[in-house]
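Z., the sequence and structure:
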Amino acid sequence: MEMHPIDREELRRAIALVATREIGPWPEELLTMADVERIFPDSRTRQHTSDAGPAALQGIRSLRDTLAAVLLDPHAPDAAARLDGLVAEYAVTPRVPALGEPVTYRSSRTGLVGHVAGRVIGASIAAYSTGEVRYLHECEADGCITPFLDTSPRHNRAYCSDRCSTKMRVRRHRQA
């Protein structure tokens, strides 16, 4: 079973959010509301970010860090329980818009954190239920661990971007 294209796009946004966390030498990348809008570029997000403050940004970071543990280790024994915990913590519920359309998820929390939580948790639920989460990988390039969704036909992509792929190809060529 394959994810609906809308769900897959939301999953890409969830992965982009996860990729903003501080890891080793890489600094925190979710610093302003503009960073949130870059990941979720739509009018509803802009409405929420206009009146959101530092607490909302910290709330999104907290959501991101828990979501990272779920998405980056989907085979962990407690991954499904962690996802259920996020659903409960953010009071996420499904909404069925119409026959043949994808289920959307909403959080009963108000404001920016609730808006983002409904989207990324809903996408994560869809990825787990379809098995799509197994195609979420971390880049294998030296010094890069950016998560990405492998949508290649054989699901054998190793790098997050053409830049990392080229960097590794040049490195192998120079070592030969």
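Strands lie at 92-95, 104-107, 136-138, 147-149. The chain has seven helices and four strands.

Let me know what you think.
H.
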